[in-house]
Amino acid sequence: METTDRLITYKKQTEYHIPVLLDESVEGLKIKPFGIYVDATFGGGGHSRAIIDMLNDKGKLFAFDRDADSEANAIDDQRFTFVRGDFRFMSNFLRYHGVGAVDGIIADLGVSSHHFDDSTRGFSFRYEDATLDMRMNNRAGMTAADVINNYDAERLAELFYRYGELTCSRKMAAALVAARSIEPVVSVSRLMSVLAPFKGKEPANRFLAKAFQAIRLEVNGEIEALEEFLFQTPQLLKPDGRLVVISYHSLEDRLVKNFIKTGTIDGQADTDIYGNRSAPLKPIGKPVTPKASETAANPRSRSAKMRIGEKQTINKNII
């Protein structure tokens, strides 16, 4: 099946989220029909369905998602197990299910189309009347409004700079502190009006996307969760097992790139006294981005970048 046809098929199956780089990611997993696989970010289940289609009756797939809404997309198949939980706790959940090692793990990071299109969740600046929530698990944890109204100026500036790469972060933080002293900032429209003066020459949509991304990453602890997830993968993967990660912004992609290449988050490889690198994974191929046909069918895939790592059977890397 061609990529565009497959995208149309999966879009008909679920409007929750259109799977990105579907063919490329499934191919990257190098699926064994009898293997055990993990979809760490189930969402609408598009990647999971493609994996299930390639398994025989001995194969198994475990899918994780912390958003209660995603459970409605669970696949009715004896080979499939849905785990309502954060992928940062992947090892514990798999151990509970009696699984110690798997043949492949896929993670499609970021926010699903469902989150962006739900006007009640506050993920998108398209819905100006929405309350600032932004929680992926909307039954627990702090909201975006909590962050904006309770963090001090220094902490707000840090998150805008680190997660949004916004150079005017200190001025943005100061403006929010001043605005909330008059009235709490709890709606999307109010947040937009406070931040609007700081967009500079950048297109408004791009500036707001960065600001909203920064707040969302903080609310959901996405970077910390990604780091914890990555560190678990070498221990879970069988020799020659594959890790496939799709990211959507440079901060995530840099972490994934560093980890696959060196086994560390900062990209500095650990070595033994002989200079041998201890990186447990090896990069497979170059980063993969969507084809023009996919971005035309699904514009939200434009910023996607996929990297593949393979568990090494022995450490062959020498500095």
- Could you spell the SSE succession in H and E letters? HHEHEEHEHHHHHHHEHEHE
Mean pLDDT: 88
N-to-C span: 43 Å
The global form is globular
Please tell me how large the radius of gyration is: 20 Å
Q: What characterizes the major β-sheet? A: 7 strands, mixed
Task: Find the count of extended strands (DSSP E, 2+ residues).
Answer: 7
Task: Give the low-confidence spans.
Answer: 1-14
Strand order of the largest sheet: 3-2-1-4-5-7-6
The helix content is: 40-55%
Strand content: 5-15%
The helix-and-strand class reads alpha/beta
Treating each run of at least 4 consecutive H or I residues as one helix, how many helices? 13
Structure description:
With 319 residues, the protein is α/β, with parallel strands linked by helices. Helix content is 41%, strand content 13%. Strands 3-2-1-4-5-7-6 form a seven-stranded mixed beta sheet, sandwiched between helices. Strand 1, helix 3 and strand 2 (60-65) form a beta-alpha-beta unit. Helix 2 (22-29) crosses helix 3, helix 7 (153-164) crosses helix 10 and helix 11 runs parallel beside helix 12 (250-262). The model is unreliable at 1-14 (pLDDT under 50).
